[in-house]
Amino acid sequence: MECRCLGTPNFSPVAPRRSRAVNVGLVRRRLWWRRAEGKRRGEGKVRCSGGERRSSVVTREEYADEEDYIKAGGSEIVYVQMQREKSVDGAQARIADMLPQLSMANGVLDLVVIGCGPAGLALAAETAKLGLKVGLIGPDLPFTNNYGVWEDEFNDLGLQGCIEHVWQDTIIYLNDENPLFIGRAYGRVSRHLLREELVRRCLESGVSYLSSKVESIVEGTNGNSHVICESNVVIPCRLATVASGAASGKLLQYEVGGPRVSVQTAYGVEVEVQSCPYDPNLMVFMDYRDFSLQKNQSPEAEYPTFLYAMPMSPTRIFFEETCLASKDAMPFELLKTKLLSRLETMGVRIIKTYEEEWSYIPVGGSLPNTEQRNLAFGAAASMVHPATGYSVVRSLTEAPKYASSIARIIKSSESNNMLLHKSSFNVSMQAWRTLWPQERKRQRAFFLFGLALIVQLDIEGIRTFFNTFFRLPKWMWWGFLGSTLSSTDLVLFAFYMFVIAPSNLRMNLIRHLLSDPTGATMIR
């Protein structure tokens, strides 16, 4: 719900169509066949932007294990690759044109950050600002995601200048009666301005950059790490931090036997319409109303989804059909079918399509092994909110604190010559404890409990859940969405929600607490 990925007009542009009933059985049969074919082949071809066709074969062998493959996109990996490699409106300068080049001649770096998304750029800038010699390595790609954030959170980060549109209030529709007004301003982030600002901070801090894919990280005989890049380029460093996204299993170790990863998927379009069905002064955070129920059997009963909408003007709007979480990724084809059916039933006539979106966010899953030498940050460090999909604001917020911990550890270790001995693993563990203290783990266990509950609920259960959730005191649900509640606060949160919940939701909560493994973890 935070990271929204706008697509390109070069793929399957959406045109106005006449209303028709959705043949649910046919859609499912096609989806199951396509999934089976993808699993059998274990590969896909990506058609790139700019009108050209380029085959990019994606195989399971590129990933550490099955969970790593699912995090990368799994059965939807072709769309995830299209999203990553598409062209976007507004020129985004190449990082290589803005930062000094990193090469083997730079000598041993204090820290190498792998990954050039918001988390990687923020951490590189913050650690270099503290006097460390920092290198940034990763493919030089533009930001293609559409980031939606609570305005106050971005203001607190000093990034208010990166917000391109603000709605002073947000609204939620759970049924045809009494919409909920959140009373909190929501902003759409300019991906161009955000990337420019984060790269500028890297430049001012003295970060050097290498545009390359990282193949592996190995430990040298002298205790340093060696980051192995394409073309046999080797960059030595005291510590390496992986911030290259959730599918980082070839560079990191994750705990064995943890919770299974779930997925949030969303398909969206930014379009010009004859008239907007919503008030353009309000951001539609969730619309769980089932508009197609009157015409035909709806897929909603088995696949709960909601509409997320950003009205940019009375006629230009971004619509996105979202599955909050599911054990198996809801296919983009089904989400697209549901979105178009919803818009047609609402009487929305599309005049022009600007962009498409394929948003794929792994949620839950195992934590990194905190006894390994290599560090992680952002989605690679399992920092995505398990119950909501939020991640960017948390990464940007925690970057200064994590950078301070890394800088303190490296400087202390260097003065004591620790990195030349086996105690280097203890050094890394200190950094891991800063990122994942026991309090954070307890908090995450609570969120995992919420995630496991959500994926079990049908559409009516989802509506009941959120109707109860947004009746909580504002500080509670604000803190839940922003990951700011302490474990003590979360106990109060759970008690309060249980008290005000209707009887059917109470029974679901009790049954889930007693039967689901995350419930037992939370109690411990």
Write up this protein.
By secondary structure, the chain is an alpha/beta fold. It contains 15 helices and 18 strands. The chain has helices at 24-41, 66-72, 77-85, 118-129, 151-156, 191-205, 332-345, 392-416, 424-435, 438-454, 459-469, 474-482, 487-500, 503-515, 517-523, and strands at 3-5, 109-114, 134-137, 145-150, 163-167, 169-173, 180-181, 186-189, 208-210, 214-219, 225-229, 234-242, 261-273, 282-287, 306-311, 316-326, 350-364, 375-376. Strands 2, 3, 9, 10, 11, 12 and 18 form a 7-stranded mixed sheet that branches. It has a 7-stranded mixed sheet with strand order 7-6-14-15-16-13-17. Helix 8 (392-416) packs antiparallel against helix 9 (424-435). The radius of gyration is 23 Å and the shape is globular. Mean pLDDT is 84; it is low at 3-43 and 45-55.
